[in-house]
Amino acid sequence: IDATQERMEHNISEFGRQLYQGGVGLFYYAGHGVQVDGENYLIPVGANIQSESDVRYKAVNIGQVLGKMGEARNGLNIVILDACRDNPFAKRFRSASRGLAIVSSSAVKGTFIAYATSPGKVASDGEDRNGLYTKQLL
Q: Is 32 marked active-site?
């Protein structure tokens, strides 16, 4: 589902409410991501990002998801990120780096994070509705 920033944040809050201690948390995202000042952000549909500071206010920090998972104290959390890890804004942004950085899974105990591609690389879109990574997962 393509989602705006408001919808993404609502869905993450709802996701957090549905997690429970002792369960398994699973978060999946397909789209674009970027890293600014060491923080990872998911880019919503329709985000008009013109400057580095726009990212902090117009994108969604992956830390929101990890925070919800941490609060639930699950034994296992799985985060699947089918997102490019390059940064299309790098030439315009001073401290933005190449796409999503490696998220420390030690930030939330029992968390496994799966990426569609290596740091600094573009994830393959594939020829169908889903990208190649998601197609192989399904």
A: yes
